[in-house]
Each structure stands twice: as structure tokens, then as C-alpha cells.
Write a structure and sequence with these properties.
about 800 residues; alpha/beta; seven-stranded mixed sheet; six-stranded parallel sheet; 28 strands; about 45% helix; elongated
């Protein structure tokens, strides 16, 4: 059903009005209407009601259609207006349309009127809805709290909303339109950067800048804009959004200031903690130097068994306290993020070999089998921090031995990933110890938590070692973990990503070995399954045919099955501590085996290989077995198939603290400068025991005079002394000597925090020793500098003794 329309008909002739109404109704238009024929009547009609459409006669005695149209538009009414006329002429229609009429219909053709009315009503509805939408949009734009604008390519502000006026501090839109856009930008370079982006990309999003308001105050704004292109593809204008973000920026600045304050407080707290730890380290290490040094010196003197036992208690207690101090320092540095890993070239196989060697005596004292399986095909040259890597392994191996009462501890190092630039290495320390209870496992990597935390405390320690190891492994690009079961032992493992560095030549790996080993068959006799497996894996990787057995009887049974005439050399590897049989007796039986043409015996011994020489063994290798030592021992036998005398393979190198120090040390003059009487006393005795010629100074100034007058070869300089410290003293030594002489100065200090070594070297010292100083480390340090910088002393002494 069609909607009834309310129409105003401006017509002086009632008959013509009736004809128009009839035509509309015949055309299907439902309507109500009112006829007026004067201006006053039309004015009253417009004020009294709402009209959907106006039809007006072009010419009337007292009124006309164009005047009616003007009256309608002057009132601001957007009502469809159709002009009807009895006059025929194009000029009438043109005039009507120019004045704003929507259509023109001749009275002689009223049949067209319904169509015109329907079209104009429809267009009016569309126009009204569009106007409403525009009004809603304009209302929304006017109420938005952000600035909207349209700017010409020349920089003229074309359109904007009220929020932009308020944001930029203008009184009205006219003053804003007259404003110079360039002056609104606080920084010209920001505007240039903004324009460069929009010119290149056509759009800019979330551009932050500072703007100058009309009153000169500064606000932070965030601007997003886009270029609007015309039909020809050229930029017609720009339109965008401007948001005042001053409050947000102030909040950010406040947050940054608060964060900086928190950071400064944290840094100050860290500094105070670091200073405290450094001070405590110094104060604790100073008496420890006396305790450990005295214990070490006493152990080298003639003592009764009870005195020696008590001396060992002193020494071991001092070592335990030193370990505790070092753990606390490391934990503190790692927690503060102050540990920076070094990048040095090293051989991982050599590192792991020396590691297990350092634990050999401890494992032997507990009757534990200690074995190493290192991937010998690991790249020889790796780059990383070998000291921190060894620190992790030291902790894990030390724990494994500590918590293992019988059985074995196996150390493994294998490649997991191998790329062109680096390798990911997995380290494992497997033991047959007491294991870890399930309720403890979840807390194992927390500070001060121990696997064995009962009040009986059979095992000591700070509970920091695993925390330190975990943090170091993380810094190396790896992770740490473990598997354990009570009563069955544990497997602690971690990974580390190491760069590939310069290739390091392993002298024991020769190119001729493969062909030599092809003519060799090896029998492993060892009652430890893990050790048998490790040695077998080494041999297999070198291409050596091998069989492993757990007893001497099995070994003899296998040898009886040897094929007569077999030209392959048979080498038997026997563990000296094999149970159930005498290892030497087994070796003798093998040597007397008449059916084997080339039978050789290598004996593995927990004691120093240099002490074991018998006619039944062709070579002795000290346990734990290094792959390098095993390789060299087999190669030596391979090259001497016609018979060799008893060889000592891989005997321990001469100790730098043997009871008979080398004679050349007497020619090395060492000046010890320290203000502490205990340190001077212990240091002088240590130098005497090692065979060096020692002089003592009780402060920096006396030390300087002795350096000038006595010209010592090496100076051991304490860093913290009254009146003048060691750093000032070495600076004065360097100033006095200039380019004419360089006395070797080694820092000897109780400071052991991160950066102390660098501080000493930067001050002009040549090397660094942290107190308490042990005889071995002191001897190695001094010997190294004698060989490196004072080689003339060695040459002179050798010439004299020769």
C-alpha cells in the first residue's frame, strides 16, 4: 500500500488544481493537499504543517511560482518543487530550473505529472537520507577528541574539525586557515622526514613529533596521514589525523625517570654489594693465605703420622673455605650479570684429559674408577671460554666423586650439532653414586639447595655449584639437566655451543697410524663395563679390531682360540686393579703364550706410570686413560714389533714442586713486596722451598728502592698496601725504567672479583696471582716468565752445568 503524501498546491484556479489532483490520483498517487494562491496563505501553510512536495503555477494574478519557490528556499526547506505552466516555451523551463525548481510540467500534459512527482519524491528521500548521514558524520567529526584535517599540496589548510582548532590553540577556524603550517612544527627536520615518507609511500602512520601551539607552548602529537590522488593520478591533497599524546609522553617520561631511578638504585646496590664482596674476599683470603700456605709447607717437612694427619686437616679445611668463598663470589657476579665469557682458542680433548687427570688422586683414594670418553673427531680448534667450561665440569665431576662410594664416574664429551661456524657439544658426567631423591630433584638448581640435605650432612658444600654451572651453561648457548634415581646413580649433562677457531695440531695423531693399526688386534681386560666400553669406542674409532672381557680367565680363553700363523699383532690392555686375578700374573701368562707371535701387554695403573717397570709389561699408562696416551702407546708398540724394552707411556710430567728443584732457579732473584707479616713469612718460605733467591720488602716504597738498587728479575707485588698501593708502585717502576728496562711484575693480591686481573694488567703489571697462592701455581707462574722473558738465565745455567 502506497504512502499518502501531503502536498501544497499553489494555484489561483480551483479547477486547474482539481485537474492536477485528479491526474495524480489517476497515476496512482495517494495524497492529501491544500490549495493556496497568495503569499500570505502560503506563509501560513508552511508554518502550520509538514509538506512532502509543492506544486506551483508559474503565473498567477497576485502570486507566481518563482516567488513561491524563493519563499520556500528562504525558509531553508529542502522540499521537492514542481512548476506547472500553461505557457509553452523553452525559456520558461530554463528560468524555472535556474531558480532551483526540481521539475517543470505543462498543464497541457498533466499525464506526466505523476511520474515527475514520484521521481522527485524518491530523489528527495535519497537526498534527505544522505543529508542525515552527512549530518551524523559531521556531528561525529565535530565531537571527535582528535584533530582531522585536509591540506592542499601547497600547505594550505582546507578543512578541519573543531578539535584541531582547540588542540593547536587557535581562536577560530579563520585564524587556523591563515596559519603557516611550517611554523606549527617545532623541528623542521621532523617535518622534512614526514614529507619524505608520505611522498615516497603515500601514507604515514603513527608519526610522533612536537608541535608549537598558537601561544607558543609545546605539545607532543601523533600524526597519521595519506595522499589523495585525482583522476590523473596526481596528488590532489592530503588528509590526516592528529592526536595529542602529551599526557602519554609525560607518563612515559615519568616511567623512564622512575625506571632510571630504580636502575640507579640497583646499580648502586650492586656496586655496594660488589665492594662488600671484594672487601670480604680480601679480608678472608688474607688469613687463608697463611692457613693454606702454612699447611702446604708443613706437609713437606719431616712429620710424624699424627702430625701429617693434622696438617692435612688444616690444608683441606682451608681449601674448603676457599671453595666456599669462590662459589659465593661467582654466584654474586652471575646474579648481577657481570660475568663476561672470554673467547680463546683451545683443544677440547686436551681440556677434558687434563680435567680427569686433576681428579685422578681423589678418585683413587676412594677406590672409584674414573674414565673419560672424548669424541676424538671433535674439531681440534674450538673457540670459547675454556676456564668457565672447565669450572662447570669441575663442579659436576667433583659432585659425582663426592656422592659415589663405590663403582665408577664416566666423563663424556660428544658432538650434537656440527655447522660450518660452530659445534654444539654435549657433556655428561655419569656416576654410580647415591642418586637423588625425587622430592629434591625439582629444587636442585636453586641456590643453597643440596641433593643430600639431611641434618646428618655427610657431604659438605654451599649448594651453589649447580646454580653457577646452570647459569654458565646458559651463557654458552646451552642448557643443563640430569637424570637420577636413588641408589642407582646420576647422569648430569649440559650442552655448550662453541665457535670453530684455529686448528690445533695434535702431535699424537699421526697420518701413518691408520695403516699401522690395520695390523693390530687388541684385547681389553677390565672388570669395569663402562671403562671397557670407553676404551673399545676409542679403538674402534681408530680402526683397530678389538674385543673386551671382564676377567683374566676370559682373556686367556680367548687367546687360546687365536689362529696359528695369525700375522696380526695382539696387544692386551690390562687394568692393574682387575679383581679375581693378579694383573702381573695374567701379563706373564700372556707373554708365555707360545701360539701368539706378536703379543704385547700394556698395563693401566692408578699409580704413576714412572713407578711401574716390570719385564712382563711392554708399557704402562697412568689412569684415568687419556685417548692421547693410549693412541701414543699403541703407536709406539706398532712401530717396534720386533721387541721393545719396558716403556713408560704418558708418565706424569715433572712436578714444578719436586723435592729437588732445578738448579737454575737459584739464579732467579724474586722480590716479594707485601705489608702483611704473615704473607711475607709464608711467601719467603715458599720461594725458598721452590729454590728461588728471595728478597723481601714490607711496603711499596721500600720495594721501589730495592727494584732500583738490586734490580730483581721478578717482583711479586701486593696490590693493597698503606701509603702507596701496588698500582701506584708499578706505575712508578715503569716511569723510572722507561724504555731501558722492563722488570717482570706479577700482582699477588687477595682481590679476586671480576675485573681485578684486567685492572692489574692495565696498571702495568705483567700477570696476576690470586691469594691464597699454592706452591704449584706459584712455581708454574714463575717458571713460565723465566722461560718467556728471562731465557738468558736458563741458557747461562745450562751452560755452566754442562
Amino acid at each position: 500500500m502506497k504512502q499518502s503524501r501531503h502536498m501544497l498546491i499553489v494555484e489561483d484556479s480551483p479547477g486547474d488544481a482539481e485537474l492536477e489532483v485528479r491526474a495524480l490520483r489517476q497515476g496512482g498517487c495517494e495524497l492529501t493537499y491544500e490549495r493556496v494562491d497568495t503569499p500570505e496563505a502560503m506563509q501560513a501553510a508552511l508554518e502550520s504543517g509538514h509538506w512532502d512536495l509543492v506544486i506551483a503555477d508559474y503565473s498567477m494574478p497576485h502570486f507566481n511560482g518563482l516567488a513561491a519557490l524563493k519563499m520556500l528556499r528562504d525558509r531553508g526547506l529542502d522540499v521537492p518543487f514542481i512548476l506547472v505552466s500553461g505557457a509553452v516555451g523553452e525559456e520558461v523551463a530554463v528560468e524555472a530550473m535556474k531558480c532551483g525548481a526540481d521539475d517543470y510540467v505543462l498543464k497541457s500534459n498533466l499525464a506526466r505529472l505523476p511520474l515527475a512527482v514520484e521521481r522527485e519524491l524518491r530523489d528527495s528521500e535519497v537526498r534527505v537520507e544522505r543529508n542525515r548521514a552527512e549530518a551524523r558524520y559531521r556531528s561525529l567529526v565535530d565531537r571527535l577528541p582528535v584533530g582531522l584535517y585536509r591540506i592542499s599540496t601547497g600547505g594550505d589548510i582546507l578543512e578541519f574539525n573543531p578539535a584541531l582548532i582547540d588542540m593547536l590553540g587557535f581562536q577560530d577556524g579563520d585564524t587556523l586557515k591563515r596559519a603557516d603550517v611550517a611554523e606549527l612544527w617545532l623541528h623542521a627536520e621532523e617535518r622534512a622526514r614526514f614529507e619524505a615518507v608520505i611522498e615516497k609511500e603515500g601514507v604515514v602512520k603513527n608519526f610522533e613529533m612536537e608541535m608549537r601551539r598558537r601561544d607558543g607552548s609545546i605539545i607532543w602529537c601523533e600524526q597519521s596521514a595519506r595522499a589523495v590522488y585525482d583522476a590523473a593520478g596526481k596528488v590532489g591533497h592530503y588528509e590526516g589525523v592528529l592526536v595529542d599524546i602529551t599526557s602519554r609522553k609525560r607518563a612515559e617520561q615519568e616511567a623512564n625517570r622512575a625506571r632510571d631511578q630504580v636502575r640507579d638504585l640497583a646499580l648502586e646496590a650492586a656496586r655496594l654489594r660488589s665492594d662488600f664482596l671484594a672487601s670480604m674476599s680480601h679480608e678472608i683470603r688474607t688469613p687463608l693465605s697463611g692457613i693454606i700456605g702454612t699447611g702446604e709447607l708443613l706437609s713437606r717437612s719431616a712429620l710424624t703420622p699424627e702430625q701429617r694427619r693434622q696438617t692435612e686437616i688444616i690444608r683441606s679445611s682451608g681449601e674448603m673455605l676457599l671453595t666456599t668463598v669462590n662459589d659465593i663470589l661467582d654466584f654474586s657476579k652471575l646474579a648481577a650479570g657481570r660475568v663476561v665469557l672470554e673467547k680463546l682458542d683451545f683443544d677440547l680433548v686436551e681440556l677434558t684429559e687434563s680435567l680427569v687427570d686433576s681428579f685422578a688422586a681423589t678418585a683413587r683414594a676412594k677406590g672409584i674408577e674414573l674414565a673419560l670418553h672424548a669424541d676424538i673427531h671433535m674439531p681440534t680448534g674450538l673457540r670459547g671460554d675454556p676456564n668457565r667450561l672447565r669450572q662447570i665440569l669441575n663442579n659436576l665431576v667433583s659432585n659425582a666423586i663426592k656422592f659415589t662410594q663405590q663403582g665408577e664416574v664416566i666423563v663424556r664429551a660428544n658432538r650434537v650439532e656440527d655447522t660450518a661456524d660452530d659445534v654444539l657439544v654435549r657433556f655428561e658426567v655419569v656416576d654410580t653414586g647415591i642418586g637423588i631423591a625425587s622430592e629434591t630433584q625439582g629444587r636442585l638448581f636453586q641456590p643453597f639447595v643440596q641433593a643430600e640435605g639431611s641434618t646428618s650432612r655427610r657431604f659438605g658444600g654451599t649448594g651453589l655449584g649447580l646454580v653457577i654451572a646452570a647459569k654458565l651453561a646458559e651463557q654458552m648457548g646451552g642448557e643443563i639437566g640430569f637424570e637420577s634415581a636413588p641408589g642407582k646413580g646420576s647422569n648430569f649433562h649440559f650442552t655448550a655451543r662453541l665457535e670453530k677457531g684455529l686448528e690445533i695440531v695434535r702431535p699424537w695423531m699421526t697420518a701413518t697410524a691408520t695403516s699401522c693399526f690395520n695390523g693390530m688386534r687388541v684385547l681389553i681386560v677390565n672388570d669395569s663395563p663402562a671403562t671397557r666400553q670407553v676404551i673399545s669406542e676409542y679403538l674402534s674409532s681408530w680402526g683397530i679390531e678389538n674385543v673386551a672381557v671382564g676377567s683374566g680367565a676370559e682373556a686367556l680363553d680367548l687367546l687360546k682360540l687365536a689362529r696359528p700363523g695369525d700375522e696380526k699383532q695382539i696387544v692386551v690392555l690390562i687394568d692393574e686393579q682387575i679383581s679375581g686375578v693378579s694383573a702381573l700374573g695374567l701379563a706373564r701368562a700372556i707373554k708365555q703364550h707360545s701360539d701368539i707371535k706378536h703379543n704385547k701387554v700394556i698395563m693401566f695403573s692408578a699409580e704413576s706410570a714412572a713407578k711401574n717397570t716390570t719385564e712382563v709389561a711392554d708399557a704402562w699408562i697412568t689412569k684415568p686413560v687419556r685417548p692421547s696416551h693410549l693412541f701414543s702407546g699403541l703407536l709406539e708398540l706398532c712401530k717396534n714389533t720386533d721387541g721393545v724394552g719396558t716403556k713408560t707411556i704418558a708418565a706424569a710430567p715433572p712436578s714444578p714442586i719436586d723435592n729437588q728443584p732445578p738448579q737454575w732457579r737459584k739464579a732467579v732473584r724474586v722480590l716479594l713486596v707485601d705489608d702483611n707479616l704473615v704473607n711475607r713469612t709464608i711467601g719467603a718460605q715458599q720461594l725458598s722451598v721452590l729454590g728461588y733467591t728471595a728478597e723481601i720488602a714490607d711496603g711499596a716504597r721500600p720495594g721501589l728502592e730495592l727494584v732500583s738498587s738490586r734490580r730483581p728479575d721478578i717482583v711479586l707485588m701486593d696490590c693493597e698496601m698503606p701509603e702507596m698501593d701496588g698500582y701506584e708502585a708499578v706505575a712508578e717502576i715503569r716511569r723510572r725504567e722507561g724504555d731501558t728496562r722492563h722488570t717482570v711484575v706479577i700482582a699477588l693480591t687477595a682481590h679476586a672479583t671480576e675485573g681485578d686481573r684486567a685492572r692489574c694488567l692495565n696498571a702495568g703489571m705483567d700477570d696476576y696471582l690470586s691469594k691464597p697462592v699454592k706452591l704449584k701455581s706459584l712455581a708454574e707462574m714463575l717458571d713460565t716468565w723465566v722461560r718467556g722473558k728471562l731465557n738468558h738465565i736458563l741458557t747461562s745455567e745450562q751452560h755452566m752445568t754442562g
